[in-house]
Write a structure and sequence with these properties.
heterodimer; A: mainly alpha; Sodium/glucose cotransporter; 8 strands; globular; B: two-stranded antiparallel sheet; 2 strands; 4% strand
Chain lengths: 582, 91
């Protein structure tokens, strides 16, 4: 069977399972719709959290980013796992004890203010839509490469599927589809990783394999890769080139952001008890760590394989995956030295960086580009980092069913995260804005209808993001973390651990953090992208890491404002006491 | 009665804070310490086929994170059991 047929087969089966689960676990009450009736087993919740968490960025982009960043890629590995320690120790148990439906619910009650609630909803919507944009682009990439439909129809199919199970099942449906999606995505990630690890090092455990010796010669894999890269003029793979302060801030922003992401926090509202909330954070991290410790191994295998199979190889004889991805528009080749061979070197191959194809084909059948060759280096290849995981099974010549499996896994990762995000957006609209703020007297049934309508609207907006996508998946997603770190995380943390923090402080803090972080990101990414380099950054901190400074701005602002405004009323003190009780 | 209960809650809360601070120091040390601030220093040591600092930043820190959460779960269970024993019938 061809790759395409197999892909249809795997994707079709997995989609059928997701919809079947949605029909089986329809939600009848608002409690079921928002928090799955608080009856989810911690292990199931751990899996659902992991699927919710591991997005298109984790599955598709992360290993590719690490492959190109080398040691600097650690920011994603530590940043996207370390936050769970904060969640488990500082937030999850208390928020579960609080026992309501949404994150703005907590902020609104703790800070006895509907203004605080609305500001929290605003932060939540900005964060979640930033994040969902990345997912939809991931869905588009997979569909266009493996099912050969255009990106827009791919996004449309994804939207319909998510819509069906989110509207029918609410949190309950999403939780159990996410359990299934976790199984699909982790299987799809591990199988090729194990195969490649065995092929290159003979070690079936990828985590050990990339610290092992190569089969072909008794030299450590990472040493070989370091040597190869230095020979081609790159920095060594295991050395970093980002400034330490930037690495520190990006990691911190990702960790704090993880702990402040509403769609992750809300998962801890779905378990029966406080102890179960702690346990599910632990299980979630185990399930996540399985992928996150495999990713750096995949990254180093992919980088090694990329050089081994295409460097100094003539374009005519280049493997078919190279040309397939070129046809999609995610690889480009410009023969700078006119020898007909593909060569890699440090630096961007093209000017401007992204390829702009003309309709013609060149001397060897390659797609012609209207870009200039970048004069400062000998690099001839543009590779979109997003393709590394998807292309790796082909690069390593693994069987067709594995290639198809990876496509189904990538879709599972993107859809599960998108569904979780869409649910928190709609819950905060129907519950926090409509029920708790503007139309307090609506019945539970009406609220449920509003919740379902909000899902519909969110799905459509998310789809538009997928059709008109902004930048790289992982990059866009990274900003959502900075925003969460600067807004929701400190507001929740201080709400639990400080009895004196008041409404004025929290609102000003969240707004200060939001405006500071958003302005910095927009300034460097959209208004003056040409200034986006370390000499222009504040203290040498990139837009990806600025959320950490945003958090400090938030904490300082709220402390100052609190000290100048009236203390919180007495019942708040009692509420906090109650949160802290075992 | 109420007073005794309050003092117990205080003990519980303090034990909880001590535990959390202890675990978070380890969390900081392995990730920001070994994985970022001292990574170049640790890279001079070889750990199987890895440079040690590189291993911490791409593997070791993640394993430690998992262990930390489970240590926390178990310790909290113990602390809560102690409180329950002192105050039977209290939930």
């Amino acid at each position: 069977m061809s790759v395409q047929l197999l892909t249809y087969f795997f994707v079709g089966i997995s989609f059928a399972v997701y919809i079947g689960i949605a029909i089986w676990s329809r939600a009848g009450s608002t409690s079921e719709f928002y928090v799955a009736g608080k009856g989810v087993h911690p292990v199931a919740n751990g899996m659902a959290t992991a699927a919710d968490w591991m997005s298109a960025a984790s599955f598709i982009s992360m290993a590719g980013l690490i492959a190109f960043l080398g040691r600097d890629g650690s920011v994603y590995l530590m940043g996207w796992t370390g936050g769970y320690v904060l969640l488990a120790l500082l937030l999850a148990p208390y928020l579960r004890k609080f026992g309501q439906f949404t994150v703005p619910d907590f902020i609104g009650s703790r800070y006895y203010s509907s203004v605080a609630r609305i500001v929290a909803v605003l932060c939540l919507i900005i964060i979640s839509f930033t994040y969902v944009a990345g997912q939809m682009r991931g869905v588009g990439i997979v569909f266009s490469r493996f099912l050969e439909v255009d990106i827009n129809s791919g996004v449309l199919i994804g939207m319909v599927i998510v819509f069906i199970y989110a509207v029918l099942g609410g949190m309950k449906g999403i939780t159990y589809t996410q359990v299934a999606q976790y199984c699909v995505l982790i299987f799809a990630y591990l199988v090729p990783a194990i195969f490649i690890s065995i092929m290159i090092t003979g070690n079936p455990v990828p985590q050990l394999g990339f610290g092992d010796q190569l089969l072909e010669s008794p030299i450590y894999l990472l040493e070989k890769l370091d040597g190869l890269m230095m020979q081609l003029g790159f920095d060594a793979y295991t050395s970093g080139s980002k400034a330490t302060i930037d690495v520190f801030c990006i990691t911190a922003a990702l960790m704090l952001g993880t702990a402040g992401l509403p769609h992750v926090i809300v998962r801890f509202f779905t378990v029966p008890s406080v102890n179960d909330a702690r346990k599910s954070a632990g299980y979630a991290l185990i399930f996540i760590a399985i992928l996150y410790t495999t990713a750096p191994a995949v990254a180093s295998f992919a980088r090694l394989n990329l050089f081994a199979t295409t460097h100094d190889v003539s374009y005519v004889e280049a493997p078919s995956w190279f040309k397939n991805w070129e046809n999609i528009g995610l690889i480009a080749w410009k023969d700078k030295n006119n020898d007909g061979k593909i060569q890699y070197a440090k630096g961007d191959a093209l000017q401007p960086t992204k390829p702009v194809y003309t309709d013609q084909r060149g001397l060897y059948g390659e797609r012609n580009l209207s870009n200039q060759a970048h004069p400062s280096n000998a690099n001839e290849v543009y590779i979109d980092r997003d393709i590394m995981v998807l292309a790796t099974p082909e690069i390593a010549k693994l069987p067709a069913w594995i290639v198809a499996l990876v496509a189904a896994g990538a879709l599972a990762a993107a859809l599960s995260t998108a569904a979780g995000l869409l649910l928190v957006i709609s819950a905060s609209v129907s519950h926090d804005l409509i029920k708790k703020t503007f139309a307090r007297r609506i019945s539970e049934r009406q609220e449920l209808i509003y919740a379902r309508i909000s899902v519909l609207v969110s799905v459509i907006i998310a789809g538009l993001f997928g059709i008109y996508p902004p930048a790289f998946v992982a990059q866009v997603v990274a900003f959502a973390f900075g925003l969460a770190a600067a807004t929701l995380f400190p507001a929740i943390l201080m709400g639990i651990f400080s009895k004196t923090m008041n409404r004025e402080g929290a609102v000003c803090g969240m707004l200060a953090g939001l405006i500071f972080t958003l302005t910095y990101i927009i300034y460097f990414k959209f208004i003056h992208p040409e200034l986006n380099s370390s000499e222009h950054w504040f203290l040498g901190i990139s837009p990806e890491g600025i959320g950490f400074i945003g958090m400090i701005v938030n904490v300082v602002t709220s402390s100052i404002v609190t000290s100048m405004t009236p203390k919180p009323p007495e019942h708040i003190g009692a509420m906090i006491e109650n949160l802290r009780r075992p | 009665m109420q007073e005794k209960q309050d003092s117990q809650i205080d003990t519980y809360w303090q034990a909880n804070i001590r535990l959390v601070l202890g675990l978070l120091s380890i969390w900081f040390l392995v990730s920001f310490g070994c994985g970022i601030l001292f990574v170049d220093f640790l890279d001079q040591f070889q750990f199987f086929g890895f440079k040690l600092g590189f291993w911490f930043s791409q593997q070791g820190s993640i394993y430690v994170f998992v262990v930390l959460i489970f240590v926390y779960i178990n310790r909290m269970k113990k602390i809560e059991r102690l409180i329950d024993q002192d105050e039977p019938g209290e939930e």
